[in-house]
Design a protein that fits this description.
By secondary structure, the protein is mainly alpha-helical. The chain contains 8 helices and 3 strands. A hairpin with a 4-residue loop joins strand 1 and strand 2.
C-alpha cells in the first residue's frame, strides 16, 4: 500500500526471520458496491516507480511476449465467484452475472454462454490494448477496466500506470532503450498524473 511500500525490504526481512514465504500484491480495488474509498491506499505513480526500481527483474519482462491470441487473465476459466445470494460471476472483480445456483446447476452456468464468451477473451478483442506498445509490460485485469474505466474491453487505467512505471524502471536499468515508445492513449496527464520525467 501507499502507506507501507517503503517498508518492502523490512517486510521481506521479517518474513525470512519467521521462516515464511514472502509474496506481495499491489492490487487494491474498489468496493463491490463501487465505492472508491479503498483506492486511497493504492500506490501512487511515484510509489510504483520506487517499487519497480527496487524489485523489477529485467529478464522477466524484456523477453515477455503477449500474443494477440493470448488471454490476459484467467477470467471464467480457472475460477469464479458465487455471492451470498447464489449469483455466479466470472471472477471476483468482474460483476457480470452468469446465472444463479438457486435456479440452475453450477455445471449449467459454467458451460453457459456468458462464461464461455469471457473465457475466450483474447488481446485481439481489446481494440486499444492489441496495438499498445506496452502490451508486453502490462498485467491487465478485465474487471478493473470495467469497474474503473467503464469498458471491459478498454484499457484498465491502473494497469496502464503500472506498465508505464515498469517501462521507466527498465529504461533506467538499461534493459529498454530510452526512446521506448509511450502509446498515444497514455500520453495524456489523465493517465499519468505525475510525469515520468519528474519522478526520474
Amino acid at each position: 500500500m501507499h502507506h507501507n511500500v517503503h517498508q518492502y525490504h523490512a517486510l521481506q526481512s521479517l518474513a525470512e526471520e519467521l521462516g515464511a514465504q514472502f509474496r506481495y500484491d499491489i492490487t487494491i480495488t474498489p468496493q463491490d458496491t463501487g465505492g472508491l474509498a479503498p483506492l486511497q491506499h493504492r500506490l501512487t505513480d511515484a510509489d510504483l516507480l520506487w517499487l519497480f526500481r527496487e524489485v523489477i527483474d529485467p529478464a522477466l519482462w524484456v523477453n515477455r511476449t503477449v500474443a494477440p491470441d493470448q488471454r490476459t487473465c484467467g477470467i471464467a476459466s480457472n475460477a469464479l465467484l458465487i455471492d451470498p445470494y447464489g449469483n455466479v460471476f466470472p471472477c471476483v472483480q468482474t460483476r457480470i452475472a452468469a446465472g444463479n445456483v438457486r435456479q440452475q446447476s453450477l455445471q449449467t452456468i459454467w458451460q453457459g454462454e456468458t462464461l464461455h464468451e469471457l473465457s475466450r477473451l483474447t488481446v485481439n478483442e481489446l481494440p486499444v490494448c492489441r496495438t499498445c506498445e506496452l502490451r508486453n509490460l502490462c498485467v491487465r485485469c478485465h474487471g478493473l477496466a470495467q469497474v474503473e474505466d467503464g469498458d471491459l474491453r478498454g484499457p484498465a487505467s491502473v494497469n496502464c500506470r503500472e506498465a508505464l512505471a515498469r517501462r521507466q524502471a527498465l529504461i533506467e536499468k538499461g534493459a529498454l532503450p530510452a526512446d521506448y515508445p509511450i502509446p498515444e492513449h497514455l500520453q495524456s496527464p489523465v493517465w499519468w498524473r505525475v510525469s515520468v520525467q519528474e519522478m526520474a
